[in-house]
Amino acid sequence: MTSYRHHPDRIAALVQDDRVHRDLYLSEEIFALEQEHLFANTWVYLGHASQVPEPGDFVAQEIAGRPLLMVRQPDGAVHVLYNRCAHKGTQLVTDECGNTGRFFRCPYHAWTYKLDGAPLGVPLKNGYEGTQLKACESGQGLSVVRHVKVYRDFVFVRLAGTGPSFEDYFGEVLGAIDNMVDRSPEDKLTVGGGVLRNIVHCNWKMYLENINDTVHPMSTHESATKAAEALWEGHAPSDPKPMAMEQILPFGSGYEFFDKMGGRVFANGHSVLGVNFSIHSNYAQLPEYEAAMRAAHGEERATEILQRSPQNSVFYPSLSVKGSPQAIRVIRPLAANRTLVEAWSFRAAGAPALLFERALSYNRLVFSPMSVVAHDDVHLFESIQQGLRAGGNEWVSLHRNFDVAELGQSTLTTNGTNELLMRNQFRAWAKSMLAGMEAAA
Amino acid sequence: MSSDPRDFAAHEAALLDERRFDDWLALFTEDGHYWVPLLGAAQADPFSHNSLAYEDRLLLQLRVDRLKSPRAHSQHPPSHSQHVLQPSRIEEETNDAVHLRTPFLYIEARGESQILLTGTARHHLVRTPTGWAIRQKRIDLLNAARALPAIQLFI
Ligand code: FES
Ligand SMILES: [Fe+2]
């Protein structure tokens, strides 16, 4: 296998205009370089501020192999620290979340730190007199992630010291988070109901591509949708459906449906699928909720918010948002062939309980390890991961609706089955991988 | 099957392990549910917190029907399960209902891979003219909230 480290030209050559090379998915070296470069140069979703409501609350989360801590400060701010004692490197906490009180105390030799990471105390202090401790890194307290953005309570980090600002990086796709938060008449979301965690034995990019793949549902999900259709047969289209049926049946829509739903791509790999309508568009109306929305946002704005229910909005490279069922998926790569996918549900303040039930139900039906819909997806991702090892053809096709005119464009609106949404991800992949690398090489 | 409800869990698990899913589904009452809480034994209800699965008969029927489809891609090759049960104990009993507690190991094998889950099954059974029926089967996994691979059949 080719070596990629110190060869940015070889990395660039993996992404062609209309196809990508299999090493993107298979190579452990590429994965290591992604951890070092791509996930440092981009803005990666860490967590939601509602996970740390009180001062001292923390969430431990690894990003790109680095253990991090999201911590609520006494003044209400959210800070992100490296979960690494300044002394010898012990992780300050090993619970995935909790409350540390007014300071962190390392379990190994009891060095203490303020909630913002500043050094507080060291036992047997005398032994450090006359040493260099104060002047060197170990005496400065916990390392801090400097580039943190809390956008409407969604917390993102950029690990690299230099790079695009949060607003420049995401641009217009931030409208998808706005839409999700605006669905609360009180402009507030809180994480609720726990997180469903899946281990999928495939490369993370394959999972993220599939979030934009509208050609697969007809064939991939046939077993689940045909079974659902058969069970629902005989009901008039206007019959109220149980929530599960309301959520599963649209997966069986035809090619034309997915083509017409439309898609939009943005610079840096982001996209919105379902700009015209989506599988979430026909959930039952809730008159009281809509009245609350009109009262909060005004007639026009409320209609605009509620009419917009894209299938998926991708915040490349780590987050996928579903505004209508108030659910997100977070992609946490573990190895070239192993990905952790989390599905979180949200409560919208001021909205009826039914909205939260929809989020729970959707995540459970579609993104649980026991999902009735995702088993076929997951099987196929794992099958691709194996299949790509075959010789003969080393390339993965992204030709569908390719048009040379799309090259160099940042924002484009297109039909829903255009593989542009995936090509756009890989173009961004190359850009973020190589940023800083060429200069260093 | 004997009328001693403590024999029920073993009978039910055997139907699953033999892939007799229609016979298994017929054990549920019309309002019966299959529930795998995300917090395991610590979870109070299926509504305030999410679950790995919380399914009524309609959804269970959908699963069973899906498994029969030749286009259930994830069942090429098919999964097989093995329940290893400790003897069931009666937790609560009234005239026409009983709550069983059955610690288990569950192994699901497919191709080269095998997953192992463990926990306690809790059956809420009701007496019917034809024998015991399941009003709820609740699976409290030992570590339900950890990241899991796909679980394809029924624990
Ligand atoms: S490693 Fe933390 S105090 Fe020694
Ligand atoms: Fe899918």
UniProtKB/TrEMBL annotation, chain A:
SUPFAM superfamilies: Bet v1-like, ISP domain. Gene3D superfamilies: Naphthalene 1,2-dioxygenase Alpha Subunit, Chain A, domain 1, Rieske [2Fe-2S] iron-sulphur domain. InterPro entries: Rieske_2Fe-2S, Rieske_2Fe-2S_sf, Ring_hydroxy_dOase_asu_C_dom, Rng_hydr_dOase-A. GO terms for molecular function: 2 iron, 2 sulfur cluster binding; dioxygenase activity; iron ion binding. Pfam families: Rieske, Ring_hydroxyl_A. Residues 43-123 form the Rieske domain. Keywords: 2Fe-2S, Dioxygenase, Iron, Iron-sulfur, Metal-binding, Oxidoreductase. The keyword Aminoacyl-tRNA synthetase does not apply. Belongs to the bacterial ring-hydroxylating dioxygenase alpha subunit family. This is Putative benzoate 1,2-dioxygenase, subunit alpha. It comes from Variovorax paradoxus B4.
Automatic annotation (TrEMBL), chain B:
It comes from Variovorax paradoxus B4. One of its GO terms (molecular function) is dioxygenase activity. The keyword Nucleus does not apply. The keyword Ribosomal protein does not apply. This is Putative benzoate 1,2-dioxygenase, subunit beta. Keywords: Dioxygenase, Oxidoreductase. PANTHER family: BLR3401 PROTEIN. Belongs to the bacterial ring-hydroxylating dioxygenase beta subunit family. Signal peptide: none annotated. Residues 69-88 are annotated as: Disordered. Pfam families: Ring_hydroxyl_B. It comes from the Bacteria. Residues 75-88 have a biased composition (Low complexity). One of its GO terms (biological process) is 3-phenylpropionate catabolic process. SUPFAM superfamilies: NTF2-like.
